[in-house]
Amino acid sequence: MDEGWIKLHRAIRKNWIWEDPLKLKWWLDILLQANHQERKILIGNEIVLIERGSFHTSTVKLSERWSVDRKTVKKFLQLLQKDNMITLKTSKKGTTLKISNYKDYQAFSEPQKDKGVDNSMDKGMDKGMDNSVPTPSPDKSQISPNKVDTNKNEEELKNENNDKEGEEGEEITPPSPPPLSIPTKYHKLIFDQWSEITYRTWFMDSEIVDNGQELIIKVDSELRADAINRNFSKYLGILLGKNIRVEIKEKSI
Predict the structure, then answer these.
(1) Per-residue pLDDT tens for 204-224?
(2) Residue 51 contacts by C-beta under 8 Å, 6 or more apart in sequence?
(3) Looking at the domain 151-161+179-248, which fold is it?
(4) Which of 89, 142, 192, 205 sits at a 20 to 30 Å CA gap from 48?
């Protein structure tokens, strides 16, 4: 497919694939090769329907196309599949590659908020670049992919910390946010991957410890622990190549 165009959301810059120029090039080539509408092709003596967002290929073809060995291609495709960015159907006649949630962020119409269509690549983190940066969220990660939806949890956190409400008719001046704190290289990495609001809400007050085998994130509430586990742990694990464990800090008496 050498004609036409594809959509590319700016959130791809938050996905792990953005950090590797070569893998990013391969990913974009996959997006460009995918069928924009379903069609039938002849494979051997069999007519096969290739869905929209899919294309039929092989590790041999991709290795020649990308000028790398088949082992490198296979590892890359497995990485994409592990992060739910693609699904693979392999047979003796080749491999059918399908981009996850292709229809959501490659729709021809403009985003329709009333229909709940989310064109963010942040989904790619958790649902295969539903998206490319994805909010990741890390069914929100393309860094995709699966979108991290923290609006509801952030509102709950605000209510949890709001001990006093202003009386009716009283003018309330919102407090200034605390100074930004980035104590470790892992805090810095998290801050760079997501927005400042996301970092302040879920990670700034956490303790992050690397024991060599795993990264331990200690937070002060079950709400934060649950949000990190559901929306961020998977993507962080892939990004760092470590197991991520979230713990709740022991409260001092």
Answers:
(1) 999 999 998 899 999 999 899
(2) 35, 38, 98
(3) GMP Synthetase; Chain A, domain 3 (3.30.300)
(4) 142
